[in-house]
Amino acid sequence: MSDHPTFGVEEELLLVEHGSGAPVPRNREVADRAGRAGVELDLELTSCQVETTTSVQSSTEELRTELARLRRVTADAADGIGARLLAVGLPPVVPHEFPITDTPRYHRIAERFGFIAHEQGISGCHVHVAVPDRATGIRVSNRLRPALPILLALTANSAIYRSADTGHASWRGVLWARWPSAGPPPHFESEDDYDAMVAMMQDVGAMLDEGQVYWDVRPSADYPTVEVRVSDVPATVDETVVYAALVRALVMTALDDERTGRPGDRPSTHALRAACWVAAREGVTGERMPRLLDGLVERVRPALTATDDYELVRGGVDRVLADGNGAVRQRAAWQRRHDVSDVVEEAASATVAGL
C-alpha cells in the first residue's frame, strides 16, 4: 500500500437538540469534551458545527477505523451536553439564522458575506489525496472536473431542509453555490493562471483570503494534496469510505494519465455548473446516474484494483444504486408522516451506524 498515494478525510458534522432537531450552537463545549477523549475537533463557521479530521492513511481499512472512532467520540461528546450528532448536508430543522462561531476571521466573513454566511449549517466531506507538488495538483484538479457532478450525486444527503422536502437530493449543493468562490473551478493552464484567479477574487472582495477558495476541487493550501470538496457529508461511515476510495482512485488515474500524456476532457465551467445542478436535483435517482456511476467505477478500476478497493467500491456503489443514499433515506423518512422528527431519527441512526 505504501506505493499508492496516502489520503485523509475531513467530515463536517451538525449538533442538534434531542427533541426538536434544531441546531445547537455549542460547538466549543463539544470540542472541549472530545479533546479530553483524545479527539481534536475544528470549529466551523457556524457554532452548531464541528469538523473531524483523520490522520494520513494508507488503506481504506485504516481509514474506516479512524472515521468510526472520530464519529463515536464526537457523538459521545455531543450526548454529554444533551445534544445529538448528525451527518447531514443541511439541518432538517433550522433557526432564523445560525450563530457565527466567535473568532475574528469568522466575524469578518459574516460581515463581508451577510446572510450567505448566517444561513449556513452546511456540512461537506473533504477528501485529500497526496500528489507530488502543487503544479501537479492543479493539473490533476483539471482532470477531476468532469467527475464532480457524479461524486455529488453519489453522496447527496440534504433532501429535507426547513422542515420541508426541497425537491433536491443535495440542497446543500444549491446553497453552497451562492458563494462566489464555490462550485466547479475553471480549467487552469498553470500555477500562475491559478494564482492570478485567486488574487483577482481577493482584489474584488469575492473572497477574503486563500482559505476561502471553496472550489469543488483544488490543490490544498496547507498540504501537498488535491482536495475534493464537492460532497455532502455522507450519512454513514461506510459511504464515506467508499467515496474516499473512489476519489483516491480518480487521483491515481489522473496521475497516470499525466505520465502517459493521455488527453483529458475539458468541459466548460458553465456546462459543469449545469451538470452539478442536475446532480444536486436528481442524486442517484436520476435516469442517467447508474450508467455514469458504472462508467466512472470502471474507468478507475485499475487504480481500485491496485489498492485492493475494487470490490469495496463496486459493492458500495451498487448498494447506493439499489437502496439509496442519505438523500433517498431522508425523503423516505419524511414521506411516512411528513414529520421532520422522523428525518432527524433516520439521520441520527445513520450517523453512528456500524460504529
TrEMBL record:
Catalytic activity: L-cysteine + L-glutamate + ATP = gamma-L-glutamyl-L-cysteine + ADP + phosphate + H(+)
Keyword Nucleotide-binding: yes
EC number assigned by the record: 6.3.2.2
Pfam families registered for this protein in UniProt: GCS2
Keywords, ordered alphabetically: ATP-binding, Ligase, Nucleotide-binding
GO molecular function: ligase activity
Superkingdom: Bacteria
Biological role stated in the UniProt entry: ATP-dependent carboxylate-amine ligase which exhibits weak glutamate--cysteine ligase activity.
HAMAP family membership: Glu_cys_ligase_2 (MF_01609)
Family per similarity comment: Belongs to the glutamate--cysteine ligase type 2 family. YbdK subfamily.
Cross-referenced PANTHER family: GLUTAMATE--CYSTEINE LIGASE 2-RELATED
NCBIfam families hit by this protein: gshA_cyan_rel (TIGR02050), PRK13517.1-1 (NF010041)
This protein's name: Putative glutamate--cysteine ligase 2
Species the sequence originates in: Mycolicibacterium arenosum
